[in-house]
Design goal:
Elements: E1 9-10, H1 13-23, E2 30-34, H2 40-48, E3 51-56, H3 59-66, E4 73-77, E5 93-97, H4 103-111, E6 117-123, H5 124-131, H6 141-149, E7 150-158, E8 163-164, E9 171-178, H7 189-201, H8 207-214, H9 234-246
Parallel strand pairs: 2-3, 2-5, 3-4, 5-6
Antiparallel strand pairs: 1-8, 6-9, 7-9
Helix pairs in contact: 1-2, 7-9
């Protein structure tokens, strides 16, 4: 394992088979896999899919994979965070055991790209943040952003014993399906994203104290001022951003 690359390899073939089953892969699908590692999941996906695009940053692993993977697997030796998805083969599904340290940027990157379904293994706590609702200890900016962009679902928890080297934490399998339409109206997405970030960066403060620090809200009616952000649904955060945008107080 190279710690800097966050490599914890899945060693349980049954879990890999379940990932593929969750994705319901057919010969019409082109599947993106991020971090194929030693290829246990890649081989199973390749059996079902039309094509697999496997992005791996570790050159030694790429060299090993070339000898064991079938012809319908395209290997890309690069950093997924530096790749423009528009410049690779078009994919409609994603199945990956993501390195923990890039889970957040990869998730946001995927949500800005078009695909049908993703089955992803995350660190347990990160997965709980993705699916969390308001008034939950796990509720976060990530929860709101994913809810706005996609429908997510916890499929199962996975013991850390199923990986080698054994990580310090358990994992979970999350299903993410991008929404065709937003779940509520947002007048300006950049404003919505900005306010969501500011609210969660100051989550222990009341809404009025956070907003008044960044915006002049003295001349308009703003709801939820005595609440804290963990008490607000994504839709209610959207209402706040719409009020600030409509009143041009940014």
């Amino acid at each position: 394992m190279k710690n800097k690359l966050g490599q914890n390899f899945l060693i349980n073939n049954d879990i890999a088979k379940k990932e593929v089953a969750y994705a319901d892969i057919s010969k019409q699908d082109t599947v993106l896999e991020i971090g194929p590692g030693k290829g246990i999941l890649t081989q199973l996906i390749a059996e079902k899919a039309k094509k697999v695009i496997a992005i791996e940053i570790d050159k030694k692993l790429i060299d090993n994979l070339k000898d064991i993977l079938p012809d319908n697997v395209e290997l890309i030796n690069d950093d997924v965070l530096k790749i423009d998805f528009q410049n690779i083969s078009k994919f409609n599904k994603v199945v990956s055991n993501l390195p923990y340290h890039i889970s957040s940027p990869v998730t946001f990157k995927l949500l800005n790209h078009n695909f049908d379904l993703a089955i992803l293994i995350f660190q347990k706590e990160f997965g709980q943040r993705i699916i969390a609702n308001k008034n939950s200890n796990h509720y976060s900016r990530l929860s709101v952003m994913v809810y706005y962009k996609a429908i997510s679902k916890l499929l199962e928890y996975i013991s850390k014993e199923n990986f080698k080297p054994i990580p310090k934490v358990d994992s979970c399998v999350i299903q993410i399906a991008p929404r065709k339409n937003p779940p509520f109206e947002v007048l300006n997405e950049n404003m919505f994203f900005e306010i969501t970030k500011k609210l969660f960066n100051n989550r222990r403060k009341k809404i009025k104290n956070i907003l008044s620090k960044f915006y002049d809200i003295s001349n308009c009616t703003v709801p939820f001022l005595d609440n804290r952000v963990e008490e607000l649904s994504p839709k209610q955060i959207g209402e706040l951003s719409n009020i600030i945008f409509k009143n041009n107080i940014y």
